[in-house]
Every structure is written in C-alpha cells, then in structure tokens.
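Reopening this one. Same input as before:
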Amino acid sequence: MNSIAIENTESTHEAENTALIILISCIATIGGFLFGFDSGVINGTVDGLKQAFHSTSAGIGFEVASMLLGCAAGAFFAGRLGDRWGRRAVLIISSVMFLLSALGAGFATTSAFFIAARVLGGFAVGAASVMSPAYIAEVASARYRGRLATVQQIAIISGLFCAFLSNYVLANAAGSSTGVLWLGQEAWRWMFWMMAIPSALFLVLLLAIPESPRFLVVKKRKDEALAVLERLYGASAAKAKFDAIDVSLSEDHHRPRLSDLVNKATGKLRPIVWVGIGLATFQQLVGINVVFYYGAVLWQAVGFSESDALLINVLSGALSIGACIVTVFLIDRIGRKPLLWIGSAGMAVTLGLVTFAFASAGLDANGKLQLSGSMGVSRWLPRMST
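Same output, byte for byte:
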C-alpha cells in the first residue's frame, strides 16, 4: 500500500510542469520587486522635490509619505477585489498603476499632481503585496511553496537595491540629483521614469500567465480550472487537485470572514492572530522606513557628499539582499524565532545608535543639522571620494 502511494506521488511529481510553476511564480514576484523599487526610488529625489515644488519640510514629508496612504488602501481592498475579479486581474491592474505612477511622478509639475501619482503607486504596492504571495501560494505545489513564497521578500529587497543603484548612476551621470540629464529633464525625474521599465515588463508578462486555479474553482469555472491544473500538474493529477481544492472550500460552507479569527470557545482572538498582528505592527514601527526613504538625506547630514550618500544606499541594499539569502538557507536549520531574535536585536542596537546620534546633534550657522565630531563622518571615516 505504501509502495503504491510512493509510486503515485513520484508519478505526480514527474508530471508536474515545475519549470512553468517557477516561471509564473517569478513573474508574480515582480510585483514585490516593484514594491521595493517604488519604496526606494524616493530616497534620491528629495532635493529635486524641494527645488521643483518649493515645498516646506512638512510638505516634503507628506510628498515622501503619500505613497503609504495608497499602500493602506491597496492592501485593504486587494483581497476583496481578488475574490471578485481574480488574482491575475488585480495584479494586471496594479501593474498599470505602477506604470502610470512612475510616469506621473516624473512628469509632475505641482506637489498635488506628484502626491496623486505617488498615492496611485502606493495603491499598486498594497495590492501587489497581498496578491503576489497569494497567487504564488495558490499555484505552487506544497513541497516548494514556502521557498517560492520566500522569493517575494528577496524580490522586495532587490527592488530597493535596484532603485538605489539607479538613483546613484543617474545622479552621477547628471552631476547631482537636480542636474539636467537626457531630454533636458532633471535626473530625479528620470529616477521615477526608470520604474516604468519593470512596470511595463510586469504588465506584459502577466498577460501570459494563467489565473489562479483556486479562484476559478471558487467561481465554479470548472473547465478553466481543470485546464490550468493540467498545464501545471499534468492531466493525471489535475482532477485530484481540483477535488482537493473543492473540498477545502466546502468544509466550512461559508466565505471567510473576520469572525473566523475568534475562538468560539473563549470568545477571544486566537493567540496566533495576536502574534501575526504584533509582528506586522512592530516590523513597521522599528523605523527602518526612515532609512529607506531618507537615507540620502541622513548620510549627507553625517557629512558625506550626495554621491557618496547614494552609494552607501546601494551598499545597504546589497547587504539586505545578502541577509535575505542567508536567511533562506538558515530558516529550516535554526528556526524562525532565533532569526527573529537576531534581527530584532540588530535593529534595536543600530537604529538606537542612529537615534542617539541625531538627537545629540546641533545646528550650524544656517540652521542645518550638524553632527558632532564623535558622531559624524569627520572622526570615524574618511570621505569616500577622497
């Protein structure tokens, strides 16, 4: 009996179109890449925004943070829209929004237009951050679903790195982020326009991948679901996969709702829900987004030139990718919690030092922040350009 089960499992695995599953999963993770790129590109454009829109410090802060308004809305509505229109459809809509946001932010001549473009991009970020991992989870086989889902995080960090690298190259080519580059346009505008390339690629590739088979089963589009499952897992396994999805959907005989998070015996939220909420909340509150959004400004306040500050962002992004890759190899060996402890301790120490350095800083004759010799670059590091 066991030998028969093993043979069936092996034949099922042999029939799987692994290359196709990995390919379409990688296409879905481009949404994560754009998430990172859209978050990181703003880092090198702050001086350009000040010059173009004559914004106050508060105005600049809102222009930089405006994307997060769209993120919240996109993440909130993505699940409902995905259940109504399909995972692939929502990803296609988000790719169009990414493209329009990239073009609009670069062409913006007023602060209001720029904010509108960034909010639109933020909506795409929120939608993609929900739909990309959901699509991967519903397409990939259970035996490597976790590894493919992890690629989403690597894609986000890779997007940040590419945004930092693009900003550095463009600023160097123009002499500064506010210098004129191609077609008589400033470099900071081209930083946003660079995002149009992966956005357009994302849109084109999404048109070639199938809809999630789980969504098709939910919508009772049996023939389409079976056709997709046959492409992914082979004709012999398609019917079994279809039945398994159908059974999983019919167990509770109702659509998922918020009340499912409550333990009916105690009337309280399930403990694992609090753990998830806590991790998600503290991940956002640690302060790393300040470094992602204002890294160039912070490094210049320490004493580096704009070019050196942008280069440090590139090095920081590369280090983040390395940390993600190391985590992928260690997560199944040492577990999730030790890695969370190590990461949390590292963030607490390093961000605490950054906070102390800037909190103890003074102001120069022009009212600009000036770190002391012990905290700034003048004592600890030579100029990178010298």
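So the earlier flakiness isn't reproducible anymore. For the record, Residues 1-12, 382-386 have pLDDT under 50 and may be disordered.
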